[in-house]
Amino acid sequence: MTPSSFLTADVLIAYGAYFVGTASPGPSNLAIMSLAMSSGRRAALTFALGVVSGSFFWALLALLGLSAVLAAYSPCLVAIRMAGGLYLLWLGFKSARSAFSNDTLPAGTTRLDEPLRRLYLRGVVLHLTNPKAILVWTSIVSLAVSSAGGASHMAPVVLGCMCIGVSVFSSYAMLFSTASARRTYAAIRHWLDGSLAIMFGVAGLKMLTSKS
Hints:
Layout lengths: L8 H15 L3 H13 L1 H24 L1 H7 L1 H26 L16 H13 L2 H16 L7 H22 L3 H31 L3
């Protein structure tokens, strides 16, 4: 594996597709953003590490060809989708409870409601219960295998996409844990948490009712 193998046209297309999907606002990014503003950088980075670990798990399955098996076995995808939908509804409930809470968070302070280990596991669970992650990694690996370089492109694609994922999720944690972001959160906490409750709730219901 040479440096040039990371820069072929097919690999760069895979990188671009993965970056757009990862950087676009979704349940994982929204959860990291909210946690960074409410509980600080350390908590958000820990949660982000859990998300990356969940992504790495699906990447390994994709490399081994097992993700394609899961994608073809519909009952398994249904079970994962049900678990993911329920988990998103739980996140929505927590955001709604925070929105209606009278607790205040002074700007510049850090509130750590959960142990770091639990935050990490929450991040892992959030990504492991996302059926789209299976399909994305299956598509990424399929693209690598079907390219001119064949299977030799699989490792560069997966390693590069994992680096992109780490960069994106940690950037969300760093950006939204700044002092200005914390002050903004303190000022609009009720509205923001209420909006997150709606977004998590809609995403959860959509996942539970989806037939694909």
